[in-house]
Amino acid sequence: MAAQAGLRRLVNLIDYYFSIGGMQMQFNVVSKETLLRAQKDPDKYRNLIVRVAGYSAYFVNLDKTVQQDIIERTEERI
Amino acid sequence: MINSSTCQEIRGNVFDIQRWSLHDGPGIRTVVFLKGCPLRCLWCCNPESQEPYTEIAYFKDKCIGCGRCVAECPYGAITPSPEGFIAEQGICLEKCFGRQDPPYPCTKKCYSQARKNIGRLMTVKEVLHEVLKDSLIYKQSGGGITVSGGEPMFQARFVKELLAESKANWLHTAMETCGFASWKKYEEVMEYVDFLFLDIKHFDNEKHVEFTGQGNRLILDNARRLAQLTRKKGIEMVVRIPVIPGHTDSEENIKSIVKFVATELEGVKVVELMPYHRLGRGKYASMGRAYQLYDLTTPAPGRIDELKQIVLQHGLATNY
Amino acid sequence: MFILIKKGHVIAPCEVYFSEGVDPMSTVLQDEPLHFQLALQPVRTNRIDSMLNYINAIEPGICIERARYLTESYKETEHLPYIIRRARALENILKKMSIYILPGSLLVGNQSSKPCFAPLFPEFTVDFLEEEILQGKPMYPYERPSDKFNVDKEIVPELQDIINWWKGRTHKERVYANLPEEAILAQDAVGAVNIVNFLHGGDGHLAPPYKWLFDHGVGHIIALCRQKLAEIDLTTPEGLESKRFYEAVIISCQALIDWAHRYAELAEAEAARETEESRRSELRKLAEICRRVPEHPARTFHEALQFMTFVQVAIQIEDNAQGICPGRFDQVLWEHYQRDVSRGILNRDQALELVQNFFVVLSTIERIRSWNDTDYFRGKPIFQNLTIGGINPETGEDASNELTYIVLDAIANTRTLQPSHYARWHKKAPEKYKMKVAETIRLGTGFPAIANDELYIPAMMNRGYDLKDASDYCIVGCAEPGVAGLRGGRTGAAWFCLAKILEVTLYGGRDPRTGVMLHPNCNGKDLSSFESYDEVWEAFVDQVKYYIRLHVLMDNITDKLWEEYIEEPLTSALGCPTTCLERGRSIKKGGAKYDFTGNETIGLANVANSLYAIKYVVFDQKLITGTQLLHALKTNFEDMTTDPTGPEIQQMCLLAPKYGNDQDEVDFVARDVLALVCEELPKYKNTRYGRGPIGGVFQASTTTVSSNTAFGRMVGALPDGRQTGTPLSDGQSPMRGTDTLGPTAAVRSVAKLRNVLLSEGSLYNLKLLPQDLKD
């Protein structure tokens, strides 16, 4: 596997989106599992930062509906 | 772009096309999964890939209980039960599977897709249409198309056409094979392959029969010839060993395979160890069926590192 | 990948059943799943670490000081012009408010008496202060389930007095008095257009021209104003008008300088008490810096950063605005950094620590919104956006430098929510930059977001920006482009809920939740009587146009009243000095070089999916009639007595192709819907049109903040299969859970939209799994 394959993949994806007419993108790099754990055990995940939309916030400080919205966003992967 | 008039005629049975595939060859790729496999590995985590014809999956969690499938099945195969709407397998086999063109009648009005066809007959053109959508990211990442299964050689003619057309469209091509097919087929298909993954599961022939239903002689034989061929063509070939605890993970087995690679497969420089994962377990368990390897756990921490040493000691590279 | 029926070697008493949705791994996972943010501990100096601990230990609260000194001043200035009153009030606040130095901090500037305490802005509205803080309706700010604020009981009597004085004098009351009935209904009943955010504070959304400020100093602005005052012809109405402006600017800028001097005195006093030698000299140096800036040009990196801190904080004290942005941080500070390094008075580590210190100070800024408005802004965003990378506007070459990498290191290691971050991206960006940005993104804090120069620049030029100015853009909010010092006006503007507008269309123009009918469908039909997809589209287009008209009218009324009563002399002088000072008028009166009013379009994916589902289910496949579908929507897909049943109809709707899977037929519907909004808005003028700025029209964006959950509560079941009350899609992202073919397919769908029309910014949220980005 090439060096820094994971980072390259992300760079490729951004280059791809932008080369076909994408304008802006922002990321959450987190698994559903981590977010579910944070919901269950907020104290342990007090510092966990996630992207909402156009800004970031502490996950455990977010309203439940917004937390759910983020959890349910599609995890883009195989 | 796609100019062969013959490719319209051949149809392959494809059960999935996965874009954003990251571990099936260099770069970001699209993997075409084909149905049909000559082996029946006990640990198989894709049981839906084994039969060559279109089958039906039933996802109880998705089922909204409308019961339309009962009425839609002309053979009366489906009856409601506490477990959902269960089809009599014998009838499906006799009336539908491999005999009718999918989609099968019982799935046609299943809007929730609880009952779903697994496997779809597609022309080379149709498959390529999907694959070529991401051609720009293949260029940027050094990726391309990977043909997988099942066992691609089960549909060798289709695979040959698909890969030939892929090459005609400047795609990098990779193939994953279990090695169990006639050499004649490999000879034809390999002309269009740029990168090859070959599985060697067990070096002991009897064990190989016990675990996969077939012996390994043909596989090892093909391995030698494929190594020769890829070396001659100047393309990369990677050998993969599934590390299945209690089955293939003995040092003896790994050593034998690695030694075989080092001494007999000149040109092969990488042996990847594929640790057993429990996705298959979840799948079988969710299917409500006994899975022979249900209690099997993933390799102990550090085990892969130990086995990796064997690979490195033989002057070969490995993943992880 | 899934399942199927196998008949084979294993005993199968029954067939398969298991859900695709559940990852079987999740039930067996014992260990923490990979998450880079949790796995990689931040590296910080003791100074930064202890400052962060200090701030994080403070629970957010409410500070009454600003309200107190503002009101005190306003009571004494009733005879003065509004802009002077505003300047006088700011002067009084900056003179009397408590100031502090964070323990160990190398930078100063505070917005309220304690870190993370929200100041109050009663001139905008007092109704929620009274209801929530005094009466606990619907709950006290400390009872909120999230976004809480503590309230010190001792402030209550004083706050009551302040509220009483402001009643009848607030911005919100004036706006409501001016809005036509149909606009109020569109906002408060139907929930299709919403300007509540702009009843609580000013607009903000700008980047001061820091390079210009560092070079000139605020003293220079005062001198310019004095010179202008001497030249003005006081016999003309324009002259009288600009006299007020210049006087207000002088008062506010002098107040800012004096405020900085208060910090100098405080630092000296603390130095005198300080026992530790190294800290004592730091405080003395800080005192010197505060005597120097912002009055005079900044000579060093440290002075420039302190200058920037003062300006950031002061503008946010003047106005309750969001999106006051440092701009192209690595560009505006590069000269100072380079010079200091070559003179040997600064090294990279010191610069990194200062930048982190800057982030910490910006993190102390807090804003309280009404509970209702909080719904749209969950997690307390302030939007102080910092932009790095991008091209050099003079040469078109990549402009990244060492400071770019220092910012990225600071993001990874400070991990504060403020400022927020953008990295510009373009074809010539070096690989090293892209990899470093990717590495920072991989931490999963959402920082930085990425903006594509090759789209943003032409999008801006399409609305009248010069090539050079557009090439110098920075993000000034969620995703909105601005140019430091050149763009003012109204970047943020009304929420525009497309999903509600589609819903209303399906019911003939009537809002099914409230029964309110503002605008009947142009063809007089509804979902039960549309005879073709074209008729659906025709009615929808007409409704969109109707609500855009309301959107424009609501924003222009807000602007008119801001202009008349709440001008911002300091924001104008620091935000757009070159043009405002030349023209002698504030941004609100047309002082900026570029001026646009924005928009925030919500629910694009739901609308595209719904329109396509109607076409697919009703007109193409003819699975059910429009009447059946309408009934299913009315009953939230729950009616079991119909044939097919509600749940079956929902499944049909869900089965129709969805935006986000690289399927042209539905992606093109999304494209057309968005283009409709993008092209309709610029037909309308804002209140600065023809008064100086280039632009002066409305333009579209797809920023949602968290309003997709708030609006979702008001929107009933839709033909995309979404049930009533659930969150809408965010930004221009596919609806969550419906893009199933992976990120390459999803980004191709999103790229099919005519993004270049989104001159007010594009917003696409992509969620990736950490293990996919593992090396």
UniProtKB/TrEMBL annotation, chain A:
<protein>
    <submittedName>
        <fullName>4-hydroxyphenylacetate decarboxylase large subunit</fullName>
        <ecNumber>4.1.1.83</ecNumber>
    </submittedName>
</protein>
<keyword id="KW-0556">Organic radical</keyword>
<keyword id="KW-0456">Lyase</keyword>
<dbReference type="InterPro" id="IPR051215">
    <property type="entry name" value="GRE"/>
</dbReference>
<feature type="modified residue" description="Glycine radical">
    <location>
        <position position="54"/>
    </location>
</feature>
<dbReference type="InterPro" id="IPR019777">
    <property type="entry name" value="Form_AcTrfase_GR_CS"/>
</dbReference>
<feature type="domain" description="Glycine radical">
    <location>
        <begin position="1"/>
        <end position="78"/>
    </location>
</feature>
<dbReference type="InterPro" id="IPR001150">
    <property type="entry name" value="Gly_radical"/>
</dbReference>
<dbReference type="GO" id="GO:0005829">
    <property type="term" value="C:cytosol"/>
</dbReference>
<dbReference type="GO" id="GO:0043722">
    <property type="term" value="F:4-hydroxyphenylacetate decarboxylase activity"/>
</dbReference>
<dbReference type="Pfam" id="PF01228">
    <property type="entry name" value="Gly_radical"/>
</dbReference>
UniProtKB/TrEMBL annotation, chain B:
<keyword id="KW-0408">Iron</keyword>
<dbReference type="InterPro" id="IPR012839">
    <property type="entry name" value="Organic_radical_activase"/>
</dbReference>
<dbReference type="InterPro" id="IPR013785">
    <property type="entry name" value="Aldolase_TIM"/>
</dbReference>
<dbReference type="Pfam" id="PF04055">
    <property type="entry name" value="Radical_SAM"/>
</dbReference>
<dbReference type="InterPro" id="IPR058240">
    <property type="entry name" value="rSAM_sf"/>
</dbReference>
<comment type="similarity">
    <text>Belongs to the organic radical-activating enzymes family.</text>
</comment>
<dbReference type="InterPro" id="IPR017900">
    <property type="entry name" value="4Fe4S_Fe_S_CS"/>
</dbReference>
<keyword id="KW-0560">Oxidoreductase</keyword>
<keyword id="KW-0004">4Fe-4S</keyword>
<dbReference type="GO" id="GO:0016491">
    <property type="term" value="F:oxidoreductase activity"/>
</dbReference>
<dbReference type="Pfam" id="PF13353">
    <property type="entry name" value="Fer4_12"/>
</dbReference>
<dbReference type="InterPro" id="IPR001989">
    <property type="entry name" value="Radical_activat_CS"/>
</dbReference>
<dbReference type="InterPro" id="IPR007197">
    <property type="entry name" value="rSAM"/>
</dbReference>
<protein>
    <submittedName>
        <fullName>4-hydroxyphenylacetate decarboxylase activating enzyme</fullName>
        <ecNumber>1.97.1.-</ecNumber>
    </submittedName>
</protein>
<dbReference type="Pfam" id="PF00037">
    <property type="entry name" value="Fer4"/>
</dbReference>
TrEMBL record, chain C:
<feature type="domain" description="Glycine radical">
    <location>
        <begin position="730"/>
        <end position="775"/>
    </location>
</feature>
<dbReference type="GO" id="GO:0018805">
    <property type="term" value="F:benzylsuccinate synthase activity"/>
</dbReference>
<dbReference type="InterPro" id="IPR004184">
    <property type="entry name" value="PFL_dom"/>
</dbReference>
<feature type="compositionally biased region" description="Polar residues">
    <location>
        <begin position="723"/>
        <end position="732"/>
    </location>
</feature>
<keyword id="KW-0556">Organic radical</keyword>
<dbReference type="Pfam" id="PF01228">
    <property type="entry name" value="Gly_radical"/>
</dbReference>
<dbReference type="InterPro" id="IPR051215">
    <property type="entry name" value="GRE"/>
</dbReference>
<feature type="region of interest" description="Disordered">
    <location>
        <begin position="717"/>
        <end position="736"/>
    </location>
</feature>
<dbReference type="InterPro" id="IPR001150">
    <property type="entry name" value="Gly_radical"/>
</dbReference>
<dbReference type="Pfam" id="PF02901">
    <property type="entry name" value="PFL-like"/>
</dbReference>
<dbReference type="GO" id="GO:0005829">
    <property type="term" value="C:cytosol"/>
</dbReference>
<keyword id="KW-0456">Lyase</keyword>
<protein>
    <submittedName>
        <fullName>Benzylsuccinate synthase alpha subunit</fullName>
        <ecNumber>4.1.99.11</ecNumber>
    </submittedName>
</protein>
<feature type="domain" description="PFL">
    <location>
        <begin position="46"/>
        <end position="723"/>
    </location>
</feature>
